[in-house]
Design goal:
Order of helices and strands: HEEEHEH
Radius of gyration: 15 Å
Structural class: alpha+beta
Largest sheet: 4 strands, mixed
Helix content: 25-40%
Bound molecules: zinc ion
Strand content: 15-25%
Shape: globular
Length: 131
């Protein structure tokens, strides 16, 4: 398996196309802070970093559950993922980024609403769609 994060997952694609439809322009799976951090959807100018988190890999409180075999290993592995997410949040917000994490189970519309509001309010340009 290629790391934990898969590119172009279905929830991510749905969210991207909704954002695009609303006239927002972004970069996909881009490294930020000198490549040491990356995000799924990146609004460079307004400094908004969006992550679409899978319920299993990121320990969703509603849908995250440990596989029956190798529970101990999985427990450590998933706890490490959650810790890494928290560290990424810290690094990015210290650098002036707004981090938005969307669970894969969230509705595309409400996620897009939150992202659109954040991007538009943080955009210093007259054309908010311009990253
Ligand atoms: Zn979930």
């Amino acid at each position: 398996m290629e790391r934990q994060r898969q590119r172009d997952t279905k929830p991510e694609l749905a969210l991207r196309s909704e954002l695009w439809r609303r006239g927002l322009r972004y970069r996909v799976d881009t490294g930020i802070l000198g490549r040491c951090r990356r995000a799924d959807i990146v609004f460079t100018r307004s400094r908004v970093a969006v992550f679409v988190d899978g319920c299993f890999w990121h320990g969703c409180g509603d849908h995250g559950s440990l596989p029956k075999s190798n529970r101990e290993w999985w427990g450590m592995k998933l706890a490490a993922n959650v810790a890494r997410d928290a560290a990424a949040n810290d690094d990015l917000s210290r650098a002036g980024w707004l981090v938005i994490r969307v669970w894969e189970h969230e509705s595309v519309t409400s996620a897009a609403d939150a992202i659109e509001a954040a991007v538009r309010s943080r955009s210093s340009r007259s054309d908010p769609g311009n990253v």
